[in-house]
Amino acid sequence: MDLLSLRYFQTVARLEHISRAAEELRVAQPSVSRTIARLEAELGVPLFDRQGRRVRLNRYGAAFLHRVDRALGELDDARRELADAAGLDHGGVAVAAETLLTVAGPLAAFRAAHPSAELRLFQSSTELMAQQLHTREVDFCLASEPLRDPTLCGVELAREEVLLAVPPGHRLAARARVTVRELADEPFITPRPGHWQRTLLDRLFATEGLSPVITCEGNEPAATQFLVSAGLGLGLMPAMARAAQGAVTDAPVGWLHVDHPDCHRTLTLAWRRDGYLSAAARRFRELVVEEFASYGRGA
Question: Does the predicted model carry a pTM greater than 0.70?
């Protein structure tokens, strides 16, 4: 049993697909299949149930994955500690966010102060973030709703209202406020399930016994304002998007308040409770907190 075999197993277990694991690992599919077969032969038990091209972790595989995650995590933490010993600029930080625009400011400040430190960025849904933290793929997640997991900890950065964006000339564009029930037949532009805007949209409508009409869904939340401006539908967007209009995008939309007490998002920076944070990661956390403290003061 070697580290490469364990890395292959961990990737296959996460994706539950041999071909996709091979693509991510950048190796040939037969190599991954042979490695998993050798590992199972060495352990004396099957780790996966085969279902065509897909594989599913069985109870042996799930138990083994728990230990593998811990073992490889300890090795990754050891590597970070050694990088720290060599100085902050030899360390690195990996961050996942729903839209990378949210972390653009802290990232720019970190890069300017520590140009030699390694930065890795991931655009992820809320559902994927907890998994990325557990597998130590990332050090931090910037989530728009709390990650309810006792193995994670975090700090609340901002709690802000979520507004309704409507196209110019829309029947509601001259309004200041709107109720959820008044939106029952309106087409909505939203990210796919797993993203916070979709979760919020479904939750708001459910409180009225309704389901939203979805006209467009995708994986790029930052595209919502452009699609709304083009007249394709309505969309829920955080208040900071309104503040950035003109500076970041020239896609004009109308902004309305939604009369519902739950129409807000809580921006949270999360990390593993038992994980090692490098000096670079700790410095990045400080910059993020400072950035959003300024935002909260209206800077």
Answer: no
